[in-house]
Specification:
The protein is α+β, with helices and mostly antiparallel strands and about 300 residues long. It has helices at about 10-15, 45-50, 65-70, 90, 115-120, 155-180, 215-220, 295-300; strands at about 25, 30-35, 40, 55, 75-80, 100-105, 110, 125-135, 145-150, 195, 230-235, 240-250, 260-265, 270, 275-285, 290. Helix 1 packs parallel to helix 2, helix 1 runs parallel beside helix 6 (about 155-180) and helix 5 (about 115-120) packs antiparallel against helix 7.
Length: about 300
Amino acid sequence: MGTGDIGLPTLRWLFSTDALQLVGVVTQPDRPVGRSQRLHASGPKRLAQEKGVITLQPVRLRRPEAVESLRELRPELIVVMAYGQILPKAVLNLPPLACLNLHASLLPKHRGAAPVQAAILAGDRETGITVMHMAEGLDTGDVVLSHGLVIGRRETGERLHDRLAELAPVALAEALQRLLSGTAGRLPQDEAKATYAPKLERDSGKMDWSQDCWHLDRFVRAMYPWPGAYTEVQDAAGERRRLKVHRAVPLHRRTGEAGAVLGTGARGIVVGCGEGALLVLDVQLEGRRRLPASEFGRGARVAVGNRWGPGQ
């Protein structure tokens, strides 16, 4: 059961292993995307169809007909990663072996829909994949095992997502070996250490220039490529537009008013923060292509003293 692309390496492993027979894939319904709003199938659905495996797409998994469709597959084991719906008790109780969830953090830290971005934003040095028995709460089940991963100094959300995706089937293979041999433990999570990573929306990438430069550096990297860190700027015609910031580095020794342009040059555009400054390297004005910040600055006539952010 999965919808996000982070689960694709795990699904490929499930197709390839001789230890299991994959009887079905459950994913979210096709969603409209882009300006054309054409329906788009999830990566797991496309892979399942390519392999000729039954695919179910219930709108609400809690509905009796959805549960019955799953029951007809007679699953002995359910593996979940980035599915997008909370599983009801009726589904959790279906498989006699286990209902396992692969979560992209070291639980109980960063429960919820956006653990990859949350780990970078928090400045964590390590994250990983946790394999757990599913419970009715949000990522609250007993842990079978965790595999850790060191977060790189300049790691982006995209890069960390892909590395965790590749780690997931490794963790699952070990967890299944323990389950099938009867050696798998069940470690309850420490609720006192739990944190929550809420689902990201399009506006989750809005930059707050009153934050310090280290936070904003992590923010830009965490939000890349989606939803993308952004701020508001005034274009050459004097209109306020949304500007995505794709790459930036912190300058802790520069000081200036938060949100004010402190300098422009061949390297990029320096913008003041609550503490320090941010050297903006790559940007993209809404409806336009991605550009080096220096090139954007010349075209948009960005000058020292210009203000970025709301209320400029």
